[in-house]
Design a protein that fits this description.
By secondary structure, the chain is an alpha/beta fold. It is built from 14 helices and 23 strands. The chain folds into 2 domains: 2-97 and 424-494, Urease, subunit C, domain 1 (Roll), CATH 2.30.40; 99-415, TIM Barrel.
């Protein structure tokens, strides 16, 4: 047995509840929070893979070190695993690949108030997210955190770091890409750029073997340029309906792009102005050039119902006061634009979602690759919880739950170029896995660490919630992680309030 994370390891010897009639319940043994083992057997579990196929099982999954060593039909004899030192009984449980979040930002402060990386990491792991693609954080901090995650000295998802490249000229753009490569980043993030600068940055990135994630905005460039130049992913949706307009969007004369209240209000009226025939051509061009789409539906969900967004139930115990302060409306902070938000704005955004969701669904139906990301930490979005909301929104957009899981695992691995090691429950792949005791294909809400309130025999019961998250072979009890988060929030709230 190898210790892989600091802190007191607590033995979990709890027997799981009895499963279906084909199962024989057995007791988990020799499994400790924060430990990796030379050999761990997860027995008698139902497997939902990340390749877009139905559930299979019961299965036994063998993990050796940080890799999946075997996946086989379950041996349900009472003494079958008697000689194994480390066994997780999965009877009545469901096993998935660890979820991948392809659009995050690592935050160690919000609104000028300290917020530890540990807080964000533990919420993500509790929500089943074992891998994240960071697309814009202080380079030194992000790369240092990646190293600590790789060596297992911190409790954190595995981190892939995309650093921002830019410049005022094509040569400055190329130079910034070379700097990104020299720093050891995993990829490049770009914002809206003039066409010649964007062409130079993407070309240099290709030469250096770096994938490019593109957050466009209202710029000279749009999705047609992304396809032509060869970016890997379009982030959010900016630049896609823009490319299908007949001229400019119908902005009022007073519109100021740097005023975020203007920007987000009128963004909610954009999709209705896109010409359907032109939009189809834009999507087809993206598909032909292999541009994946990470829509981040959840990032803007507050725009459909700001009152609900401000009062989400998990905020009570799990919202860090630094993040709560950041959410407070302010012209000085990105994504804090919600003052004066109106019923008309929400109606426009609901229509926006209807058209946007259909475009994403059409994109996937014609062969486009759709990923899942949350971009949390802005607009009343909480790390992890918002990612799970993203999965629900993909289902709202028309994706079958099996395909939603694929977007969150296999698809995300592919768009990051990691499909040979992550996103599947497959022999030889890295041991990133999650286990829960309710079927997420029946209800994606079962993935939330807070579970689902139900009634049984006239009494309130909580169903679901991920019970174990395994990252790189290290086993974590998610209730233990969530208690750590709750303690961090309580302690932070007890301190004097910082600046807004």
């Amino acid at each position: 047995m190898k210790k892989a994370a600091s802190g007191l390891a607590i033995l979990f010897g709890l027997a799981f509840s009895a499963g279906p009639p084909w199962s024989h319940a057995a007791e988990s043994r020799g499994v400790e929070h924060g430990r990796r083992y030379d050999r761990l057997v997860i027995r008698n579990v139902m497997v939902i893979d990340g390749k877009g196929t139905p559930m299979r099982g019961p299965m036994d999954v063998v993990v050796e070190g940080n890799k999946i060593a075997a996946l086989r039909g379950a041996n349900t004899r009472p003494d079958a695993h008697k000689s194994e030192a480390h066994v997780l009984d999965g009877t009545g449980m469901y096993l998935l690949p660890g979820l991948i979040n392809s659009h995050v930002h690592l935050h160690d402060e919000r609104a000028g108030i300290a917020q530890p990386f540990e807080y964000e990491y533990k919420v993500y792991l509790s929500c089943g997210v074992t891998t994240v693609r960071d697309v814009g954080t202080d380079p030194k901090k992000a790369l240092a955190e990646r190293r600590k995650s790789q060596e297992g000295s911190i409790i954190a998802p595995r981190l892939y770091i995309y650093l921002v490249a830019g410049g005022a000229t094509p040569e400055e753009g190329r130079k910034s890409v070379r700097s990104v490569k020299e720093q050891g980043a995993d990829g490049v993030k770009i914002f809206g750029l003039d066409r010649d600068i964007m062409a130079a940055i993407v070309d240099e990135s290709k030469k250096l073997g770096l994938k490019v994630a593109h957050h466009v905005g209202v710029e000279e460039t749009d999705a047609r340029d992304a396809a032509a130049f060869g970016v890997a992913t379009m982030e959010h949706w900016y630049g896609i309906p823009d490319a299908a307009l007949k001229g400019s969007q119908n902005f009022p004369p007073s519109y100021n792009y740097n005023n975020e209240s203007d920007r987000f209000r009128w963004a909610g009226r954009l999709w209705r102005e896109a010409d359907p025939a032109k939009l189809k051509a834009v999507l087809d061009e993206m598909i032909a050039k292999g541009v994946a789409w990470v829509p981040t539906f959840s990032t803007y969900e507050a725009c459909r119902d700001m009152t609900r967004a401000r009062n989400l139930p998990w905020f009570k115990e799990y919202l860090h006061p630094a993040l709560e302060a950041y959410f407070h409306p302010s012209p000085s902070r990105h994504g804090a634009f919600s003052w004066g938000w109106s019923t008309e704005d929400e109606i426009a955004w609901k229509e926006n979602y209807r058209i946007w969701m259909k475009a994403v669904r059409d994109f996937a139906d014609r062969g486009g690759l759709v990923g899942a990301g949350d971009d949390a930490g802005f607009i009343y979005t909480l790390y992890g919880f918002t990612y799970l909301s993203e999965l629900e929104l993909l289902q709202e957009a028309g994706f079958h739950p099996i395909d939603v899981i694929q977007c969150a695992t296999g698809n995300n691995a592919k768009l990051m170029g990691l499909e040979d090691r992550l996103g599947r429950v497959r022999q030889g792949f890295l041991a990133d896995l999650i286990l829960l005791d309710e079927n997420p294909l029946a209800n994606l809400k079962y993935l939330y660490p807070t579970g689902v309130l139900d009634i049984k025999d006239g009494k309130d019961v909580i169903r679901g919630g991920i019970k174990w998250t395994i990252k790189d072979g290290i086993v974590y009890s998610t209730p233990r992680l969530m208690q750590d988060v709750k303690d961090m929030v309580r302690e932070a709230r007890a301190k004097p309030a910082g600046p807004r």
